[in-house]
Amino acid sequence: MSEFEALPAGLPRLINERYEIESLIGRGGMADVYLATDHVLARQVAVKVLRQDTAGNPMVVNRFRREAKAVAGLSHPNIVAVYDTGLLPATGQSAEALPFMVMEYVTGRTLKQVIIDGDVDEHHAVELIRGVCDALDHSHSKNVVHRDIKPANVMVTESGHVKLMDFGIAQALDNSATMTQTAAVVGTAQYFSPEQARGEQVDYRTDIYSAGCLFYELLTRKPPFTGDSPVSVAYQHVGEAPVPPSEANPDINPIYDPIVLKVLSKDRDERFQSAGAFADALEDASRGVEFHESTVPTYTMPIYGTHDSTETLYAAEPAPLTNEHPVFASRAESRANDQPGHKSNRGLIVLLTIIALFAVGIASFLVIRSIQADQERKAPVAVPSVLNLSEEDATSLLRNATFNVSVKHEYSDDVDEGNATRTDPITGQEIAKESTVDLYISDGSEQRTIPKNLENQSETAARDALRQAGLEVGEVSRENSATIPTDWVIGTSPELGSKVKAGSKVDLILSTGQVTVPAATNMSQDEATKALTADEFQLKVQFVDVETDDHEPGTLFAQDPAAGADVAQGSLVKISVAKPKPSPTPTPTPSATDSEDPQDPPSASDDNEGQGNSGNNGNNGNSSNNGRDRTRPTTGPKTE
Asked: Which NCBIfam families has this protein been placed in (predicted)?
């Protein structure tokens, strides 16, 4: 077997002993498309296989099978053909059986790529849409509505031939297969019809509308409606008129404008009733033939007199009798003409007269009914009350009353968030059908509560909580705190739990992670301990005894760090406690025997020290030792 690129686990190289997978050529939302060789018919085919990650979803599997079933019944040169379908059995690598279909292999570009490349002029755009419309005419004749006409689902071959593909959300319109999800919105937002946006049942005119969106993009390089979200685009499809192509792109011939506006009508009855009629009108316009809305006259004979929808028609006064026609001849002339040769003509004249009168009566009746129907259609309708209804219910009620709906939002203290507050025009006011009514939905009370749980949260968490509460972050300041970590929230301004207007700015107060040291001197140790370890400081205390004669013993006279200093949370504060200095120990006075040692005579300093320490040294301090000879004898024995 040939060597090709690696395949996902669970996908065999040879399917049904016939289709040999070569390489991946496309990837969609639910399936992958591979180039393969059909060894039986010796041709290249495209094999579409449901991916393993979507095979477990029953809705995706049903959509895949519906595509195969829908296309299998179609056979047209502008529709990608399906040759074969089957089911790959589950394996060790694939827990689910994988459906596949074998399709016609088409080389070329999608219409989306053609639009991006920008090589489409007016005449080429008409040719491309003709191919799409021919494919739609065929599928509609088989009661199959595609429902997802968009540039990515149209292939243009290298020879310029158009191929419509991807019938994954196609819907049969026969009696046995009616819509089962009329409320589900399916399709692609930029190209689906107003009835799809409203979740209504679709028919072949839905595809015609999408084809109109496709032609619009071919001319202007952008869809008729764009927006920030699919919901906003859907609202435009339902309630806004498209900008004519010649206004969106001044290079476009305005001859196409009435055709595009007709095919994009909100009311499907006002669109082209077949894809072929749409394509025919475009081809006429490309040849310079302007499009005019065809109307069927309600009557062909003139009606004279005045009338309205409630008055009886009055016939005009008869014209004077003339000789121009026997019907209006005078009585004498009638008798003159009442000859055998005129009898047969007389009967014919009477018959024609009766027919003419009958035609006038029919025409009059049709005119009256037409006027009445027009007045009924244009009759104003009262706007229904939608107060306190959900957005979905209120929108449905207004649309059932024939109005287009534009949803807007406002604050309300009386209506729960998500429910309708009012309409504009107001409830009960009569306006024309299909007018646009502004539906106002409550965003809840305009008053917002600053969350109380912001305290002791990080700055990032606090900012997110304020945004979710409909508030904005104002200025950020910092304060000391004994308990809140650095850069975490201490409080807010206005304070936590207070009521403010939605969108107001709330200032954040964050912790510095520091504490201002309080004064702890000139108090008892117990008082100092309580002051420093209080909840608002939570500092550690150490008392240090310091010998000093400047303060009373036990006095707290100094602290480190000093009062007023900013320190880290939980820091240690050392407090100096006064302690008296110890008394000096007296030096013993030497005895006379010791002082007369001939080998060690007393020094003058020793003698002076003795004088200074005591005044009672044998002479009661009255004698002086200045003249005393302190020199001990150097020889001889010591005498007692």
From this structure: PknB_PASTA_kin
